[in-house]
Amino acid sequence: MRLFVAITPPPAAVGELDLVVARLRAARPELRWTGTDAWHLTLAFLGEVDERVLPELRIRLERAARRHAAQPLAINGGGAFPGTARARVLWAGLQADTGALASLAASVAAGARRAGAPSPDEGRKYRPHLTLARCREPADVRDLVAELAGFASSGWTAGQIELIRSHLHREPRYEQIGSWPLRPAS
């Protein structure tokens, strides 16, 4: 099964972002826009994981979550990978304690690795974001990034991590198969 570990923003923050993204979708229909139900902050992409790994993976993710405090977050601004002039991915950024978030992501990835799950993200610098659209061909999205520049959602506290299964179809569908609370913020 294809798995990843993520934090899902609350409906209020998703709704605020969607008000801006709706205008962008209308202006650039040629991009492959993700639906609001697919917006999430990936902590670790695991790829194909054997079902026999799940029991140990659940234990390891629970341990990783307990070691980290709840995270204050807000959706803020945007950007593109690999860059705005020849983008493949348009994303919304996050206002966060990036060190704490990167530490959480590293713990999640290490726990998954110890459980026997592959870690395709290994070696990449952690860049927290929510994917908004993908480009079939490299595209100039400077105008879209400029539109996102002033955006900031209401803040929230992310209090849990989720293990999510990705069902690949024409439109990917995500199914939460586990969640674990982060330690309460002090």
How would you briefly describe this protein structure?
It contains four helices and nine strands.
- The top-level CATH class of the domain at 2-28 and 38-74 and 92-123 and 153-181 is Alpha Beta
Spatial order of the strands forming the largest sheet: 2-6-5-4-7
Q: Using the alpha-carbon principal axes, give the shape.
A: globular
Structural class: alpha+beta
Total beta-strand segments: 9
User: How far apart are the first and last residues' alpha carbons, in Å?
Assistant: 36 Å
CATH topology of the domain at 2-28 and 38-74 and 92-123 and 153-181: Cyclic Phosphodiesterase, Chain: A
- The fraction of residues in strands falls at 35-45%
User: Into which percent range does the helicity of residues fall?
Assistant: 25-40%
**Radius of gyration, Cα only, in angstroms?**
16 Å
The H/E string reads EHEEHEEHEHEEE
CATH architecture of the domain at 2-28 and 38-74 and 92-123 and 153-181: Alpha-Beta Complex
Count every helix, treating DSSP H or I runs of 4 or more residues as helices.
4
Q: What is the assigned CATH homologous superfamily of the domain at 2-28 and 38-74 and 92-123 and 153-181?
A: Cyclic phosphodiesterase
